[in-house]
Structures are given as structure tokens and as C-alpha cells.
């Protein structure tokens, strides 16, 4: 997150350059919110053959905002046949988490405005 703050994250699309640190959007057409991922390690997998991800949302309703949604890991495809299904489930969970947060936050703001209005 610190690297993101100082604009030092490499991306955006893993189909263009291998070893990027992030990809956005992921799960296009299957999510309510635009979802992205930060990768660790940035290329390949760790010693246990896991790919670690931090999923975030960039909600269109809140321009310029990012919402941390989910931390997850999936096995490398060399040791798991269902890695893609696990990844899809993580993206869906990140989307649900972000959507819930946005909905609750918007409701809280609306309630505050309602209480403050004459």
C-alpha cells in the first residue's frame, strides 16, 4: 500500500508484461465493482507454491477511491487443478465485500444527512 501511495507499483496488465505487481480489472463482466489485485510475489509463486493476492475495489460511485477488499492465496497451477476456480471465488468474495462496504457507507452518510436536514 505504501508503494501505491508513492506511485511505485508496476502494472497494469499481466498479459502485456510478466511479473507485474498488479492487475486491474480482474473478473471483468462478473463483478459489481471494478476489482483489482496486488500480487506477492510479483512473479511466480512463493516457496510453498502459493500466489498471494490483496484484492481492492475502485468503485465507480466513489471516483479516486480504492477499497481494500480481501487478502487471499491460491495454489500454483503446477500443484492444483482448481486454482482458477479458487481465484474466481476470491474475486467474487472481494466484490461482495466491497459492495457491502459501499452500501453500508452510503446508507450511513444518507442517515447523517437526513438527521442534519431541517
List keywords for this structure.
single chain; 118 residues; alpha+beta; four-stranded antiparallel sheet; 2 helices; elongated
Please tell me about this protein's structure:
Strand 1 and strand 2 form a beta hairpin. This protein has a 4-stranded antiparallel β-sheet, covered by helices on one side. It is α+β, with helices and mostly antiparallel strands and 118 residues long. The N and C termini lie far apart (41 Å). The radius of gyration is 17 Å and the shape is elongated. The chain contains 2 helices and 4 strands; from the N terminus they run αββββα. The mean pLDDT is 85. Helix content is 32%, strand content 24%.
Which percent range fits the helix content?
A: 25-40%
Please outline the major beta sheet: 4 strands, antiparallel
The total strand number stands at 4
Q: Please state the average pLDDT score.
A: 85
Ends distance:
41 Å
Shape: elongated
Strand order of the largest sheet: 1-2-3-4
Quaternary class = single chain
* Continuous helix count: 2
The Cα radius of gyration reads 17 Å
Secondary structure layout plus pairing:
Elements: H1 2-5, E1 22-26, E2 35-40, E3 50-57, E4 67-75, H2 83-116
Antiparallel strand pairs: 1-2, 2-3, 3-4
In short, what is this structure?
The protein has 118 residues and is an alpha+beta fold. It has two helices and four strands. The protein has a four-stranded antiparallel β-sheet with strand order 1-2-3-4, covered by helices on one side.
